[in-house]
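Section: Multi-chain targets

For targets with more than one molecule, the full set of components is provided together so that the structure can be written out for the assembly as a whole rather than chain by chain. Components appear in the order listed by the source. The example entry contains three components.
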Amino acid sequence: MSAALSAPGRRLPRSLLLGLVVLGLVLLLAALGPFLAPYDPDAFNMRARLRPPSAAHWFGTDEFGRDVFSRVLAGAHHSLLMGFGATAISLAIGVPLGLIAAFRRGLVEEAIMRGVDLLISLPPVLLGLLILAVTEPGLGKTILAVGLVYVPIMTRIARAVALDLLAEEFVEAARARGEGAFHILAREILPNAWPPLIVETALRVTFAILLGSALSFLGLGPQPPASEWGLMIAESRPFISEAPWIGLAPGLCLCLLLIAVNVVGEGLRDLLDPRLKGRGH
Amino acid sequence: MAGFLARRLASLVFVLWAMTVLVFAVVHLLPGSVAHMILGEYATSAAIAALEERLGLNDPLHLQYWRWFSGLLQGDFGVSLTMDRPAGPVILEALGRSAVLAAISIVLVALAGVALGIHSATHAGSASDRALTLGQYFFIAVPEFFWCILVILFFSVWLGWLPATGYTPLAEGGLLGWAKHLILPVATLVLGLIAHVSRLVRSSMLEALESRYVLAARAKGLPERLVLRRHALPNALMPAITVLAVDVGILIGGIVVVESVFAYPGLGRMLIYAIDNQDLPLMMGGMIVVTAVYALANLAADILYAVVNPRIRVGGAA
Amino acid sequence: MLEVAGLSLAYATRRGAVQALQGVSLAIPRGGAMGLVGESGSGKSSLVLALLGLLGKGASLSAERMRFAEDDLRAAAARLRGARIGTVFQDPAGALNPALRVGLQVAEPLMQHRGLAPRAALARAVELLGEMGLPRPAEVADAYPHQLSGGMKQRAVIATALACEPELLLLDEPTTALDVTVEAQILDLLERLRRERGVAMLLVSHNLGIVDRLCEEVTVLYAGRVVEQGPVQALLSAPLHPYTRGLLAALPRADRGGMQRLRPIPGSLPDLTRPDPGCHFRPRCPFAAPGCEAPQALRPAAAPEPGRGERGGDPAGLVRAAGVRRVLCHRAEALAGTPWPAEEAPPAARPPIGGTLLEAEGLAKRFRLGGGVLRLLAPRAEVRAVDGVSLALRRGEVLGLVGESGSGKSTLGRLLLRLLPADAGAIRLEGAPVPAEPGPGFRRRAQIVFQNPDGSLNPRQTVEQALLRPLLRFGIASGAAAEREVDRLLELVRLGPAYRARYPHQMSGGEKQRVAIARALASRPDLLVCDEAVSALDVSVQAAVLNLLEELRDRLGVGYLFISHDIGVVAHIADRIAVMYRGGVVEEGPVEAVLAPPYHPYTQALLSAVPLLGRRERAGARLRLAGDVSTPAPARGCRFAHRCPARLGPVCEEQAPPPRLAGPGHVIACHRPLEELARAPHALLAAE
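Its structure, encoded as tokens over all components, is:
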């Protein structure tokens, strides 16, 4: 459990800093997008269809003459919401379940963990498809579906972390003082559990964005004319030979965001959990 | 080992059964009438009533479930609502074509992932290791559907080397025609997974190389290649088996995407088709089959793990 | 045969180069045995790796000479290791590859260096395993490491090291991870190998006792430098260098009783990134004087008269023919008569031991074996960790609980504190029954100190937070009074108020253990369970913590249940000793009574297995045990019957041994009559 017990306060790795900067930039653009956008992202302009990138249209225009740059800006918040929203959902449900399973050994634990085993034995996409197949698609549904997909994993991790910590001697010392479950959870377990949980959360955001945008790409996310990046890429397919920029622009942005989130996740892991670090450098 | 197998098989059966309940429950218990869903929002109430009557949707739920479940047990997946064909054969044909894609991919991922991971670990810190690490960061983060767009753009549109979409059966197009349609989908599927597996193999190999038993093997005077092959590798590969099983799940997701983009007539594309067209028997059957495949892959991984890990295979501890 | 001169080794780290070894010289003649002793951080293990040519990247090595027989080790190490130099590392569990059969691992050097075919090599491996005293060697060869016990694994590792009949064995802490009776078996084996094969040995150890038993010469390493070198008996009976003297003064000894306070070495290891050109022990040395800041050279020293060292020297006057002695201190001879100073505070007079504080009756605890998988496979597989133990602890008394790993002593400690639910039995605190879920009254009065200083403090709490919590929880003090109380507690454990704001990672192991003790004492308990509380500490630090515990006992009247596998420590601090074997107490009594005949056969074996300084001849009279704690015990009858060398017959397996009163408060549970048990030789003193 050296993971949780690593010393607080260490130097920020450079890659983490870089990732945070890029991520911050995307956040900023997502927040300011509507004000920065040179055009209305949904406005048709039939006279300016399929224009290549130029000074007037940085990322070109699509088949309806919509400005791709404005659409990419307007779509940034979708990916962010999917990544962080879904992760927040899995965290909010999974962590309490995991902690309960760690604390209440016996029947409650069995019930929770068998349920987790069951859900984990389904491929993640399938679970998402199942939830989205029978309801009207939309951003909220996609976020919910992706979040639910990762609940069992979060539950498992939270339980494992808590079980490791419960075996620590300082927790036993707290029990020797007759401390209640709340004190042990709040003062002894959680302050030491958050580093591995943060690391897991950060890495999970990447997967959530990937899964969410893949579902959108398949038409199971936000519906047209929404400018979700995965959806934009899907819609660009018929024009791939004549106007590749329609798909490339949101795709490259999505890649940039994913790499940034991934770098931040890996950086946090190196920072908080040196045991798991890919060594050799 | 026999007990281990028996328990894993029992849990497999349980998972499959639970999945039938889950799929059925989600489809039938969520708000909104099934018939309404199938016919769309402009359906007349008479049409809905007729369909409900035809599908037996007015029967009690447990009866409907039992009808469907007992059918499944006999290999009867019901009749596709959109194709007027039994769903079973449709699913099986699609499964066969997807299986080709998946099998080639998983073999490539295992071979390339392990080889690159070992190279990285044994050359840790070198230029090639750094390049691989950078590549891994990149390939893990790029979504499959975007890869599809990129490879189509590059190899089909610009270079014109390979077909962008479609499928030619082996019998019609010969080996070449058949393979042409597989290259791009497989390439798209494996890139991210190879990065994932090689990263993991690299770190588990490094861990093995730092272990006391590798030090002891070197102190015995064994040459480095023997130290790597006999002492480090078997221990480093154990976690790789687990991660390969997890990656089968990711691969299934990838297949759904890749088949839709490349118009490859496999199980993934069929599922999306069934969802888009609300073809419930096809969708439910497809989901059960995918779950079964995934569960079998996990079972295979568990057995493989037990075979290479003497703690499970031999048991008994002191 | 092995000759090393002026060996220096530096590791590149982020904080700069760490000088792990500086100018180390030593030589081992053909068939000779050299002990290399030092505390953690002294560089002992680095030296072994340097000799094998197995230093990792980032290590830079320089030496005037590194010769093995006629070869230069720097060039030839790759060819020699495994063939002419065998190695045994600490922790046999880690040194064997979990994925390969033991036989193959033993056979590997034979295939590599002797060119034997796999089949022939395997056959020879089975022979070797047999020669190492393993029963059924063919089965062992066919097994995987996880199927063997620790002692069996270490025998297999030694067999591997010996496979090519090397001329030199490098032994890096070869018995440290093992129980004392198993350690004794391994030491017997090594001794026999020296005798029969004439193999030379370099024995690296922190344990002076096993070096004394196995080696002729010893090299003492302190922070990367050799501080003293010479014949082992002369050196240990009359050490010259202040560090060696301090080390011996700080060592609790099973054969010396516990009346005197130990004399710890103050301070800690120097910063090796900036090595001191002068004597680097100077900051910790009570004899430091002008001239110590000058560079010191390892120089020949005149051997002092035996018996003038501290702590009585060698009582039997057994100093053998003195070889060359070398020492790294310019004042060594001048200081020979000056004793190592005791701690400043004179021990407070010890208050008399009071009435019964805690009583336990028939405590029992079973554990199911294994996790989910095993549980389903064999639902009845369980181990009786504590099996009907009754004991009593009086106010201000120290009850030592000894036993090997797996004996259930830690479980018993937790049962007594109601940290684990007992399956059966009752506990009374001053006559009042303690319920299964005791209230704050009991919790306040009974506290615990753990073994691992790293795990026993919450890494996210400052010392102040850790100490305030029990004060507030039990309503001992609040507000400004609590602040004062924190200072008082820190003072109690000899830490300044500057420690209040520190986090655990900012403290050394000894400091952390002091904080853990202060935290346990904050609620002013009457009873402290010390679970291996000093086992993870180096000897010099351990002495300071032991002294602290004794002082607190005397000042506060706290009673201790002192759990330890280290007989020396328990003999030093305990008033009474209980000996546990497989969940049951086999002998219990006042410390002098337990340490002298009559013994329970297990106690006798345990005590005679303890390697003691200056008592090499004891080895002949040792009561040897076969197997280890995992050897199955009979379901009924005596739990020790299957390993007992003094077994009477079927009665031992069929009937529970009767507890017999061997003296006032001294109980032995054995079928053998007391008169017979009393005829056993004294296990700690030399054979008559």
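The first helix of chain A runs from residue 14 to 36.
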